[in-house]
């Protein structure tokens, strides 16, 4: 594009363009001039001398000087006090079916008011939501949506569930916890969709106010976490164990990426670990990868690979193994592990048939674990 | 001999500049020869937080003339920039008034650029946000026909929507860096950094991307080097200038008066790695002088400089850097 063409297309609207600069200027990525960020003191950090702080919310343990932000980009040390900048600052708000999370054993067919703020405490190269998770709050549009407004909105939209999702809710921990408390008062349930990269103490506090957590186990090797997630595997495994032994309903999602985390050996090892540590009844979803963000060089996961890894999990003895991101696949259904009949039939995010009766298979009376009412 | 080597190289650059040919190859050859870094000290340039303009101009004059082997400031800048260039002066205003690039420095530099034939509308002094610029005592100027002073967050500026993926880097670039400018000056504050070890002209470009918080692991290595190696920086970067009027030698990057020393120094280098390497040595000397362990002992030496050297971005080895120090 030459200068003349540029002016034709942009009308010379921007400041730089006014100077005759050929550029493609994207306002949507401009900061807000007077960014309307929150300044609410963060939970889970330590104060150190010389206005330094250490964040202990997640396993990164960011040590920050004055005016510095954590890896998440949404928590800042201001004069020796650590603040969350995204409290009540939602950048995404939608009403989704709970199946989209995916949570398959938690109030099927219910609608979840789903919210997110900017920020994430890892940097997955395959992130599907990087435009909100990998930016700072000033860089995207957000609205003031304090906890009581979230709850009112859920009520108004007939949503029995609020989902903290899309980016990484751990980084908006204070907002999530306060909203969850408000929601509970009104009989609304709370679900958290997370990578599980959180320290035990804040997780245990979170568990007290939420009803279900879906954890993305992104691989079963530290090497993958180092190279493609920029995080640690072990804390995620610890988080899975903590949630599994609590009263909060847990489901696990594993995004299968061709050549990177789809080896038979790794999948089998992971399944054995799940069986040993959290038992056979935690639903395990194998999701199909689509090229995104910094990983556009790989093809979508072949369906055959998803079938293969599901078979491994079933062979190992996991009862509820699903295939995700493949609408219409038979592995979207819930099968009774006893009589092998379909107890919940799904197509995409839609429930076609529900053959559960009081949490049991209507054909053989086998208990199907989950939160059904 | 030294002058001859540089003389040949820079005359060639000059010819190329007149022909408006991409300087990058020649620049690359220049930095890969023995790298020259010029340290200019001027006692009294900073008095009670006021910059002595006359002394500052003298510092620039000497620094750039020694660096380029030219007779005066105008000639020095003319071998680095041509009249049609759009020049970005990337400053660092993260740490407020006390420890940001002092406004007098980029404003003087902008004036020199104008004097050497670059139209003032094609000069921009910039950083991430207008808030940080204002806190560092800059007056925002978005006037189309004058020297601009603004942040990437200015309405109508923002980030280029093209995600640049290069080695371990995946970032959106400020459209100032990606689209507006053709040549870049990194005018950084020299200071200690709790994670990177040292922040200077290379790390200054963290302020040119939307997600610098993602690149502070493992002492910012290899991220500082890999970011510099991206197309929007390596091809446009022309000169590193380090503001060492006050050097924060410990507990940086934020300002702590008890570990900040008035050094009244500017450092000039065409080789960004060498300039930053020399800046690091200055910080180490100050730490030693005040009985503070070295960055290596604190396990936060700026290893990204070695990575940068391996990537052939410049020299991080004292044997291959020629330091010329002058006090005026």
Give the overall average pLDDT of chain A.
Answer: 92
SS elements, strand count of chain A? 21
What oligomeric arrangement do these chains adopt? Answer: heterodimer
According to DSSP, the number of beta strands of chain B is 13
Q: What composes the largest sheet of chain A?
A: 8 strands, mixed
The CATH topology of chain B is given as Rossmann fold
Tell me the radius of gyration of chain A: 22 Å
Total discrete domains of chain B: 1
- The computed structural class of chain B is alpha/beta
Low-confidence stretches of chain B: 1-23
What brief labels describe this structure?
heterodimer; A: 373 residues; 2 domains; eight-stranded mixed sheet; three-stranded antiparallel sheet; 10 helices; 26% helix; 23% strand; globular; disordered N terminus; B: 328 residues; alpha/beta; Rossmann fold; two-stranded antiparallel ribbon
Tell me the layout of helices and strands:
The complex is a heterodimer of chains A (373) and B (328).
Chain A: H1 3-10, H2 15-18, E1 40-41, E2 45-48, E3 52-55, E4 63-64, E5 75-78, E6 81-84, E7 89-90, E8 92-97, E9 111-116, H3 130-133, E10 143-144, H4 147-156, E11 161-164, H5 173-185, E12 189-194, H6 200-207, E13 212-216, H7 222-229, H8 233-244, E14 249-256, H9 264-278, E15 284-288, H10 303-316, E16 321-324, E17 334-335, E18 342-347, E19 350-354, E20 356-357, E21 360-361
Helix pairs in contact in A: 4-5, 6-8, 9-10
Chain B: H1 2-19, H2 24-32, E1 35-41, E2 46-47, E3 50-51, H3 53-68, H4 73-78, E4 87-90, H5 104-115, E5 123-127, H6 130-135, E6 148-151, E7 164-166, E8 169-171, H7 175-180, E9 183-193, E10 197-199, H8 223-228, H9 231-234, E11 237-248, E12 260-269, H10 272-289, H11 304-310, E13 321-327
Parallel strand pairs in B: 1-13, 4-5, 4-9, 5-6, 9-11
Antiparallel strand pairs in B: 1-12, 2-3, 7-8, 9-10, 11-12
Helix pairs in contact in B: 1-2, 3-5
